[in-house]
Design a protein that fits this description.
9 helices; mainly alpha; about 240 residues; single chain
């Protein structure tokens, strides 16, 4: 199993004007080859080319080193989700679909960060910086879910927006971790991970009473008789179309 993707340094030799960055990169390389729990503090020092005592100048222990990597990962994750959401433009449904695709793309393209963020065994509140970065990333998903919840048909029962955000996060994370990751643990599918997630979310939204066919939704859109545009429907998904 390999998490290798983020490997941009030379194999030998750091100029240790920035030992902290050298150690962070060394740990990322180790995560790429051994996983988030497969290396020691001394391993990171060895890969960085410094003495076993040197890392303690910047990090209390291995967990603090991992926490710093996870925090950077969540900061990049937040940026990717924010760019995909784009404040719900041009419409909520299209933007929401982009957020799901961005989630999967991050897992695929940055597997070492993804492993540090979700597979290191660190407590979510192990550091204030990590906790805040993780919350900001989730806030993007919550904002998208809140906007989506506002499109629910009048009078239809639905969970609170926060619960919807947690449901959708769980679905996205499950598909990302099983089928979209960028390492050897990725399971095979007869379709793309994006198609699977789209179909899964579609089933979920149908269960909440959301309109899922654009033509029938347009005919039943509230306010149509008065010439007012109703909320955009959720588009149909591929339903497991084989590739």
């Amino acid at each position: 199993m390999s998490w290798r993707k983020e490997t941009g340094r030379n194999e030998r030799g750091y100029h240790h004007g920035n030992l902290k960055e050298a150690l962070l990169q060394a740990a990322l390389d180790l995560i790429a080859t051994k996983g988030a729990s497969g290396f020691t503090f001394a391993d990171a020092a060895r890969i960085a080319g410094v003495s076993p005592a040197a890392p303690y100048r910047h990090f209390r222990d291995r967990d603090e080193l991992l926490s710093s990597i996870a925090q950077r990962g969540f900061e990049q994750f937040e940026q990717a989700l924010t760019e995909a959401w784009d404040d719900g433009r041009p419409d909520t449904v299209s933007a929401f679909e982009r957020v799901g695709k961005a989630y999967l793309a991050f897992a695929r393209e940055k597997p070492a960060f993804y492993s540090a963020m979700f597979e290191s065994g660190l407590a979510a509140d192990v550091s204030a910086g990590l906790h805040a970065a993780a919350e900001r990333a989730f806030a993007v998903i919550r904002a998208a879910a809140e906007r989506l919840a506002a499109l629910a048909p009048p009078g239809s029962p639905r969970p609170p927006a926060l619960m919807m955000a947690l449901h959708i996060w769980s679905m996205s994370h499950g598909v990302a971790s099983l089928f979209a990751r960028g390492d050897g643990a990725r399971r095979k599918l007869p379709m793309s991970a994006e198609e699977l997630l789209e179909a899964e979310v579609l089933i979920y939204l149908r269960g909440l009473g959301f309109m899922t066919d654009r033509r029938s939704a347009a005919q039943a859109a509230p306010g149509k008789e008065q010439g007012k545009a109703g909320p955009p429907p959720v588009p149909p998904g591929p339903w497991g179309r084989p590739k």
